[in-house]
């Protein structure tokens, strides 16, 4: 584990209930699994032309190429970067995104930015601005439900053979990577993922299932530790498979040979540092975890140098 920072950062802490909610998620999932088994829920056939889940709980999609999109340059007079609004189709919906390209950018690498829950593309400005200053293009998207999730509701969709919203959000990230790579200023062969909080979970899964993605940076995120759930006769295996399919921990081995990077405040106010460390320990090399002093949940300026270094490694 890399130790890089000693400076202190500050942020108002969130409620202890929010932290406890994250800590207890594996237990809650286990209870839901037993409840599903008790009432005899059976998984029906899904729309296999659009998505599928393996017996091991690995989500996959058909190849995502040549995404139709519309765009409109909206660069401000006082901003040297190219700012471009885009809208593209993904899993039956139009997804809005903001592309930022460095001034005079030519054949530059690109980064898909997935904000945390409750954060819109317009609110997530600091990270794209940082990336542009480092010479990288980015696309930041408005995630469905603004990144909010409902695992229990998605389980019901999965059981009925309907695409869960979390699967759509992974597809959105992959479609965004395709759209970013299609920009004339961007090298479509050099695309990485960066996600914050919930967005980090989707970034990890998307990177795992698309081998052309160069690597992933997860900020203030973690997996769900579903492999710690005891599987017995009371557990419905279809429900268990679904919960495994939305757990980033289940995909870590698929990222190996590409770079897996985590940055996490040691006193994170929402996702405890020990949860990030647990996910990091499950990942395979090449990997690095940067513990950041402070309690900030999400991006901190103390992370800028590490992000710069790691992207240079990913795109070298």
From TrEMBL:
Domain named Dienelactone hydrolase: residues: 96-219
InterPro entries named among the record's database cross-references: AB_hydrolase_fold (IPR029058), Dienelactn_hydro (IPR002925), FrsA_esterase (IPR050261)
Pfam families associated with the record: DLH
Domain of life of the source: Archaea
Gene Ontology molecular function: hydrolase activity
Name of the protein in its database record: Dienelactone hydrolase domain-containing protein
Source organism (scientific name): Methanolobus vulcani
């Amino acid at each position: 584990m890399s130790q890089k920072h000693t400076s202190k950062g500050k942020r108002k802490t969130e409620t202890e209930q929010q932290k406890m909610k994250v800590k207890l998620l594996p237990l809650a999932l286990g209870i839901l699994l037993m409840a599903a088994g008790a009432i005899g829920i059976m998984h029906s056939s899904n729309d296999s032309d659009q998505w599928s889940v393996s017996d091991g709980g690995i989500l996959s999609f058909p190849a995502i190429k040549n995404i139709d999109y519309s765009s409109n340059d909206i660069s401000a007079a006082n901003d040297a970067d190219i700012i471009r609004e885009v809208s593209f189709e993904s899993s039956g919906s139009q997804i809005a995104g903001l592309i930022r390209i460095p001034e005079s950018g030519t054949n530059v690498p690109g980064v898909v930015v997935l904000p945390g829950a409750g954060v819109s593309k317009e609110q997530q400005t600091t990270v794209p601005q940082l990336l542009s200053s480092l010479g990288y293009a980015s696309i930041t998207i408005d995630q469905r439900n603004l990144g909010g999730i409902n695992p229990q509701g998605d389980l019901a969709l999965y059981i009925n053979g309907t695409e869960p919203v979390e699967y759509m959000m992974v597809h959105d990230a992959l479609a965004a990577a395709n759209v970013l790579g299609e920009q004339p200023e961007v090298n479509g062969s050099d695309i990485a993922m960066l996600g914050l909080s919930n967005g980090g979970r989707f970034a990890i899964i998307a990177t795992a299932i698309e081998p052309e993605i160069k690597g992933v940076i997860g900020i203030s995120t973690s997996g769900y530790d579903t492999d710690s759930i005891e599987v017995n006769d009371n557990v419905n295996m279809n429900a268990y498979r679904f919960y495994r399919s939305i757990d980033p921990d289940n995909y870590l081995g698929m990222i190996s040979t590409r770079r897996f990077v985590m940055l996490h405040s040691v006193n994170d106010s929402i996702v405890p540092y020990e949860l990030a460390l647990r996910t990091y320990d499950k990942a395979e090399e090449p990997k690095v975890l940067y513990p950041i002093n402070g309690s900030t949940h999400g991006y901190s300026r103390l992370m800028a140098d590490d992000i710069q270094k790691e992207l240079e490694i990913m795109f070298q």
